[in-house]
Amino acid sequence: MSRVIVFLASVLLLASCKTTEFTSATSKKVQSTDTLSDKSIVYGLPKSTLVFEVKQIKEKYFPGPFAEYASLLLGINGVEKDEKEMYYIDNILISQYRELDSEMMFVVDPGDEHIEYLKLSKQGLIFFPENINVSDVFNNNRGEDIDKYLFTNTTVKPNYNLKNTSLSRVSGQSNYSGVPVMRKQLVQKSKIDKAKEAAEVILNIRERRLLLLLGEEELFPVGEAMQSIVDELARIEKEYLSLFIGKTLKTEQTYYFEYTPNKQDVELPYVLFRFAENKGIVDENNFKGRPFVVDISGLSEPLENNVITSFNGLTGNSHRIYYRIPEVVTIKVVDKSNVLVSKRVLVEQFGKMSSVPAKNIKF
Q1: 125: which of 156, 164, 256, 288 lies 20 to 30 Å off by Cα?
Q2: Structural domain boundaries, residue 29
Q3: Considering just the CA atoms, what is the radius of gyration of the chain in Å?
Q4: How deeply is 45 buried, as exposed, middle or buried, from its count of CB atoms within 10 A (0-12, 13-18, 19+)?
């Protein structure tokens, strides 16, 4: 009796194994010479593409028209007298989207099985060609043009002086040598004269503000009125000061860089872009800028050990469905030895290949 029970158990076990491992459905990696049947289903594995949003600030300095008199009239030393541009990286954001890996396409021949949709697609472990998400379009924005900013006209007095001139008018009579005539002539003020007037306005504003704060003005404002007057005096003073110390104007520029990692980048950092303080972001092939590189770390084991080598290296027919488990890695953007941003992300193409028996997949 016990032998019969053992025999029946063995038969059931073999039947179970056969049901699990063997099915008429087969799959294999797509080759260029493959001919697909009407029942064939093609699917692919996903891969990750990283998007780096880089915000760059452009600063342009415009010297004031009276810069040369800043030290003489206001005691301000070291004022720049030439235009210059400066750039710096303000922020870097890392995001990603998933797309189809064209090098990892598989075809499923259903055989006698009834196949509709693989449930692995709901977990994002495989992609069907008709369900590929189209990535966003990223446009580089160079920001506002700030090359033609003018200083505000802050003149509070006429831009001219009245000058007395003496002319001689010759008489028509022989006994007259000439008659002197006095006239007034408008003469444009010199640059130093206009600088003096601007400096006087600045000093007067400072004196007025001091009297207000000390309460020595005849009409003494209180509360919000006081604050409004002080703020307005500060605004006017700043505008006049710019005539001497110049203006620095800023504009934000946004750049987008897309990058699809591959296994070679693990050991050789990828140059995302190059940067120069006087030119900003330049092409990665412009060696006048220093490189900003992408560093990938945190792989659990060497990539070579993650790819399945059985089943004829994915090229032969198999009664299994292939998928890829994403790998979690750390993505960094590094400037020299400075880590500017770091983020943990899932990268499908670094993940482990795996498979399940086709019979175990509900179609």
Answers
A1: 256
A2: 2-149+250-360
A3: 39
A4: buried
